[in-house]
Amino acid sequence: MLSIIKPKKVSYGKKLFSALAVFVFTVFTIFFFSPLEIFLGNIIEFKFSATTATIILSVFSFGVAVALSCVVSLLPAKVLRPINLFVFALGVCTYLQSILLNGSMGSLTGDEHIYSSKLILSNIAVWIFVFALIFTLWIMLQKAKKSKLLFTGMRFISIALVAMQLVGFLSLYLNIDKNVNDMKNNYFTDAGKLEVSENENTICFIIDTCDGALVEQALEDYPDMFDGFNGFTYFPNMTTTHSRTYPSIPYLLSGEICYFDKPYTQYVNEAFEKSSFIEDMDKLGTDIRVYTEAQYIGESVLDNIDNHLSYDSSSLSSMNFLSFVKQAANVSAYRGMPYLFKKNFEYTSASVNDASMKALPNKAVLFDDVGFCSDIKQKGIKVNKTFNKTFRMYHMFGTHPGASISADGQSKPGVSQIEATRGCLFLIEQYITQMKKSGTFDNSTIIITADHGFSSASQDLNLHNATSCIMMVKPAGTNDGETMKTSLAPVCHEDLFATIIESLGGDHSKYGRTIWEIGENEERERKYYHTTLFNDLDGEVALREYSITGDARDLENYHLTGKYWDVNYSERAVSKHRLNQDKE
């Protein structure tokens, strides 16, 4: 009698060990290492603490990897093996995409990213090749009865890649600026957002990214754009100090230039410790309220800001667990998926924060220009008689790529930057209208400017366009009976400090000249500090100082001074690029 030889049964323990190796590798790559590299590399932009994020994602990843491994290990070996191979191939492709294939991935600053067909096809080809190679090897080795070699190698590679990523993660985690978490514990509320004094007010609107060229183009498309700004002076020959929101906002409230030579929190805290600008306003009896991210403000002046509150950002109870995991998966997918699919996973730090963190008491709704415009029209501007004088700074989303405010202040996703410019000025026009109704317009100074103008990246790090920004100012004592004026005076951010202190009745002499003291035809040198952002992973590229002499709208008037600084610290990852290497 012939005996039937049955295939050797593989024990559950062996199947579980094999599955664990590949599932731990792939699950941790997607749900732990990849998102945490983004979160830790850009930790200042996210409201949750590094420790909290690490705890949640490690527990989730471990639980998913173990659960899936236990379930699939119940399957017959002939079914389990192709599943393990598929999961392994997915992990390898995601890992390769993250570390090798994302060289053309742009920064998520709201700019539209259009990838060429050649790039998309070549990227997909790599994925197909990896999957085909792994399964072809399996078929060939199976025929040669040596498939065990493939699975042994797969387990070894999985464990090795987990170890390598763990080393990278620990390096990031252990080198985080420990003061960042303290900064995350502060936030600004909406309290007093639409309340002003009946006596003196200085209102400052910061329209993010509102370049002077956008204003000029918007005026062509919307000739009536300035009709509601009687009493204002328009300064088209205006320059900013820095090229990006950080460090522009800290500079605008401290006057301290950032050279990227110290950690983010150290620069911000030291800038406000050295500066007396906020304290000088406070000493004048000013109710000070700023509507921006607390990360831009140093700890030494928080008590001087009347809409400041604190909370514990490191508490697990401050997080929405499932929403945070979803956001982490989305961040990972944007990083790890081929270019063909990246558009589906685009995100912003604000979208991650909003979904991940539980609501804070009366937290200021920031960068929602459409909502702000609606509030102004519905609620109006109120006089608070307990305020002697006020300073308000509204940091708007503005004309930043990704803006969604239409020309008439409505929601319009995908709006052009030119239309967003009109929309932002429409919003401010509504504010002015409400001030007139409350009787506070005439005795208020209103400043409309930007944190920076165009700041797009360039592979050669050079400026390719002039970068003036919007500047419109109405001094207290003027009313809407006075027609709008235009001044070509060479003004800049540096002039705002004296202008604001004077508007509040203080001695501005230590801050230099006010904007009104700059001569119309004055020959003046202004300094501009430019950095380029290649992408979110590669970070800011070195700082270059430009001297501007003449009209800021003409690129021919921008000259490198020869002063360069490597960006050793940034709100993002530190770039591998260094200008010190190309100084010859």
Helix content class:
40-55%
Structure annotation, total helices: 16
User: How confident overall, as mean pLDDT?
Assistant: 91
| Poorly predicted runs | 1-5
Rg estimate, integer Å: 28 Å
Distance between the termini: 88 Å
Oligomer status: single chain
Secondary-structure-based class equals alpha/beta
> Strands of the largest sheet, in order across it?
6-9-3-10-11-4-12
Q: Can you summarize the main beta sheet?
A: 7 strands, mixed
Estimate what percentage of residues fall within beta strands.
Answer: 5-15%
| Number of DSSP-assigned strands | 16
- Sum up the overall morphology in one term: elongated
Summarize the structure.
The protein is an alpha/beta fold. The chain contains 16 helices and 16 strands.
Model description:
This protein is of the alpha/beta class. 42% of the residues lie in helices and 13% in strands. The chain has helices at 12-41, 50-72, 77-99, 117-143, 147-174, 180-184, 212-221, 245-254, 264-274, 277-283, 321-336, 339-342, 349-356, 369-379, 417-438, 496-503, and strands at residues 186-188, 195-196, 200-207, 233-234, 238-239, 286-291, 308-310, 382-383, 389-396, 444-449, 471-474, 485-486, 491-492, 525-533, 540-549, 558-565. Strands 6-9-3-10-11-4-12 form a seven-stranded mixed β-sheet, covered by helices on one side. Strands 14-15-16 form a three-stranded antiparallel β-sheet, with no helix packed on it. The protein has a two-stranded antiparallel sheet with strand order 1-7. A hairpin with a 6-residue loop joins β14 and β15 (540-549). The N and C termini lie far apart (88 Å).
